[in-house]
Every structure is written in structure tokens, then in C-alpha cells.
Design brief:
Blueprint (H helix, E strand, L loop, with lengths): L1 E19 L5 E21 L4 E5 L11 H12 L5 E7 L10 H16 L6 H8 L6 H6 L2 E6 L3 E5 L6 E6 L6 H6 L12 H9 L3 H7 L1 E2 L2 H7 L1 H12 L4 E4 L6 E5 L2 H12 L4 E6 L8 E2 L1
Parallel strand pairs: 1-8, 3-4
Antiparallel strand pairs: 1-2, 1-12, 2-4, 2-5, 5-6, 7-10, 7-11, 9-10
Helix pairs in contact: 1-2, 2-3, 6-7, 8-9
């Protein structure tokens, strides 16, 4: 038996850091949404109880360091499953890009195994397991659009934002989330994102207000460490994007656009500057992730 599951990328419409927690994590408040740039996770039942993994990207680890592999191990041990699984990840989301690619692969694995192994778990139960893998995994289990609090595991699901085009550009650099958070001084953050304004923009399907409310407190840290990220952002703005923001800890920057004519202008401008440029639509609402 074989199942295929979509693993869509996420972008942060807002990312606020409120405090450093005693457990070493940061207290965050984020509005996140999915876009239709997606990996695909194929899950094939194994009768021998083994868990194996292959990936279209050769540099992606195929052991417990991989979030999807870790998700399978955790679910198998937690629910004492006898069967195994072979995972194949068709990688389309850039790695270490601030788009939760690894977390989305893990979430897709949890959803797929729930069906493949006939576990009968709810999304809430899968999200609880996901919280032990990574902070973005619970959101990715639900998909769609949500407000995330705590260290990212407290999810309040939201309606879909106003539909639009999303142009994503990733410079050829890696960004360490730990380094970005390590260089963030919470008490010195000059301005926090207008989370309430973003929630209102989503509720009212107000595209203009959504663009005005974009904000990410990690952006200034990453921009200071990596000038290429700043250059991408400035190029998007100069090319006429309606709203521009870095996603997560970076280095991917995205532009929101309503008019298709602008999409081509921004895409062409970026392609002369960086190799990894993607055009997507905002998904926003939860879709049926299971494929034939």
C-alpha cells in the first residue's frame, strides 16, 4: 500500500518574539499561512517493521536527523506499530530557507502514517506528537492559516487571507535559526508587528491592510548578518511588490502581489539576481492534502 501526501511551504505574515523562556525557547506570536509551493512525501508500507527514507535532494539526511524520519519513529514507538514504512521525499521547497520545508515533511508523514497504519488519530493528536519534533510542525499538521503562540505549538486556526500571488526568492546562503535568535535582543526590539491588525485584515479579506501589517522582528537581525537578503527585499519593493517580508529566520524573502502583470516584472528582476525564485499562490485554507 502506498500513499502520497502534499507538504506545502509556509510563510510568516507576522513573527513577533515576546520573551526568552526558562526552557531556552522564545515566546512567539506568529501569523502563518501556506502557499502552493510544496514537497511530496510518498509513504509505502513495509511489513518488516523497518523505517527507511530516500529524498530527491541528495544532501538531505536520511536518518533521525530528518524531521520526517523522526516523525515516523516517534509515531511507531508511541503507538506500538508493528509495520514499517519507506518514505520518499520529492523536495521542491528550498532547504534551510525559513519556509518550514522539513517541518511540513514531518507533518505530511504524520498525516500519511495515520492513514497507512490505521491509527485513527485526530489532527489535534497528530499536532501534539508534532510538537515534540519541531516548533513549526503543529502548524504544518493543520495547514491553512493560523495564529501560533507559545514556542509555536499553540495553534488558533484562522480563515484564509485575501488570495494573491506570492513570489519567493532565496539567496544561495544558509541561515542558522539559532544564530538569528542568539543575536536578537528582545528588550531592544524597536517595533513589534501589528498582530491584531493582521488578524483583522485576514478576517475582513483586506489585501491592502494585510500588506501594511506584515512584520517580522527577526528580519533586522538577518538583514544585518546577510546583506544579500536586504538587496532582495529592496529589489522586490523597487519592482512594485504590494508587500514584502522575510519569512521565518530567513533567508527567503517573499513578495505579495494582486496583479499578475507585476508577478512577471518582479520574477524577471529577481532571476537576474538569484537562482532560486518561485511563483506561488497563497493557499490560506486547509486543502485535502492526500493525493491519489
Amino acid at each position: 500500500m502506498r500513499i502520497s501526501v502534499k507538504a506545502p511551504a509556509k510563510i510568516n505574515l507576522t513573527l513577533d518574539v515576546l520573551a526568552k523562556r526558562p526552557d531556552g525557547y522564545h515566546e512567539v506570536e506568529m501569523v502563518m499561512t501556506t502557499v502552493d509551493l510544496a514537497d511530496r512525501v510518498d509513504l509505502t508500507l513495509r511489513g518488516d517493521g523497518e523505517i527507511t527514507l530516500d529524498c530527491s535532494a541528495s544532501f538531505v539526511p536520511d536518518d533521525i536527523r530528518n524531521h520526517a524520519y523522526k516523525a515516523a519513529v516517534l509515531l511507531k514507538e508511541r503507538y506500538r506499530v508493528r509495520e514499517g514504512v519507506h518514505l520518499y521525499i520529492d523536495k521542491q521547497i528550498p532547504v534551510a530557507a525559513g519556509l518550514a520545508g522539513g517541518s511540513s515533511d514531518a507533518a505530511a508523514t504524520l498525516r500519511g502514517l495515520n492513514q497507512l497504519w490505521n491509527l485513527g488519530l485526530t489532527l489535534d493528536e497528530l499536532a501534539q506528537v508534532g510538537s515534540e519534533i519541531g516548533s513549526d510542525v503543529p502548524f504544518c499538521v493543520y495547514g491553512g492559516t493560523a495564529l501560533a503562540k507559545g514556542r509555536g505549538e499553540q495553534i488558533t486556526r484562522l480563515n484564509a487571507p485575501s488570495p494573491c500571488w506570492v513570489i519567493l526568492a532565496k539567496p544561495p546562503i544558509g541561515v542558522s535559526t539559532a544564530d538569528v535568535y542568539g543575536n536578537l535582543r528582545v528588550q531592544e526590539i524597536p517595533a513589534h508587528p501589528l498582530t491584531g491588525q493582521m488578524l483583522r485584515a485576514i478576517q475582513e479579506q483586506d489585501f491592502s491592510l494585510m500588506c501594511q501589517a506584515l512584520g517580522n522582528v527577526l528580519e533586522s537581525v538577518t538583514l544585518s548578518l546577510h546583506p544579500q537578503v536586504r538587496q532582495i527585499k529592496e529589489l522586490m519593493i523597487a519592482s512594485g511588490a504590494d508587500g514584502v517580508l522575510m519569512s521565518g529566520s530567513g533567508p527567503t524573502v517573499f513578495a505579495l502581489v494582486q496583479k499578475e502583470a507585476k508577478v512577471h516584472r518582479i520574477y524577471n528582476a529577481l532571476r537576474g539576481f538569484v537562482k532560486d525564485v518561485f511563483v506561488a499562490r497563497m493557499l490560506g485554507a486547509q486543502e485535502g492534502e492526500m493525493l491519489a
